[in-house]
């Protein structure tokens, strides 16, 4: 099993790789003049998903944080009413 430092380095490398992939997909690829058959285009989904996917993940994350917060606030208020 990896130590915490090694695991942190692996997670950091994955996060950096995902960031650069997304940055290239959104900020550089639309401005490149490429033919339809170019193999670079096969590495990326259509550009419309570049904004839909992060929006969906953001809504899911914010919803999860809201549910977590409401659950704990509700449990604290329920405990204070019992005592």
Task: Write a compact overview of the structure shown.
71% of the residues lie in helices and 0% in strands. It is mostly helical and 83 residues long. GO terms for molecular function: enzyme regulator activity.
Low-confidence sequence ranges: none
How many separate domains? 1
Task: Report the C-alpha radius of gyration, rounded.
Answer: 21 Å
Structural class: mainly alpha
* Biggest sheet layout: none
Distinct helical segment count: 2
Mean pLDDT: 90
DSSP helix fraction: over 70%
Written description of the protein model:
This protein is an all-alpha fold and 83 residues long. 71% of the residues lie in helices and 0% in strands. The chain has one domain (1-81). It has helices at 4-28, 49-82.
Which characteristics define this entry?
83 residues, mainly alpha, 2 helices, Dolichol phosphate-mannose biosynthesis regulatory protein, DPM2
Please write out the topology.
Blueprint: H1 4-28, H2 49-82
């Amino acid at each position: 099993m990896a130590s915490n430092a090694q695991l942190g380095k692996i997670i950091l490398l994955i996060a950096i790789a995902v960031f650069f992939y997304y940055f290239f997909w959104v900020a550089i690829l639309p401005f490149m003049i490429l033919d339809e058959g170019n193999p670079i285009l096969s590495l990326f989904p259509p550009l419309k998903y570049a904004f839909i996917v992060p929006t969906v993940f953001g809504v899911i994350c914010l919803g999860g944080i809201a549910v977590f917060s409401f659950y704990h606030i509700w449990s604290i208020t329920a405990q204070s009413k019992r005592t």
